[in-house]
Amino acid sequence: MPVGNIPAITGKLRKRLILDLSIALGGGTVLGYGYWYGVHIPSVQRRDAFYAKYQAERSE
């Protein structure tokens, strides 16, 4: 049974690599912003409020 010529798949790896990198960088950026504004900033605000209250109580 003869095998016919199979056309080469060109450019598929490059397109997939660009897609994968775009998704990885975009997703990483979104998750980074989510952590920064959803977790880090509120915890810093709670810490700062605690120390401001503590300092006010100490100075009385």
Task: Describe, in short, the structure shown.
The radius of gyration is 27 Å and the shape is rod-shaped.
Structure description:
- The protein has 60 residues and is mostly helical.
- It is built from one helix and no strands.
- The protein has one helix at 12-59.
- The radius of gyration is 27 Å and the shape is rod-shaped.
Notable features of this structure?
1 helix, 60 residues, mainly alpha, rod-shaped
Question: Which SSEs are present, and which pair or pack?
Answer:
Blueprint (H helix, E strand, L loop, with lengths): L11 H48 L1
Written as H for each helix and E for each strand, in order along the chain, the element string is H
Distance between the termini: 96 Å
Q: Can you tell me the overall shape?
A: rod-shaped
Number of helices: 1
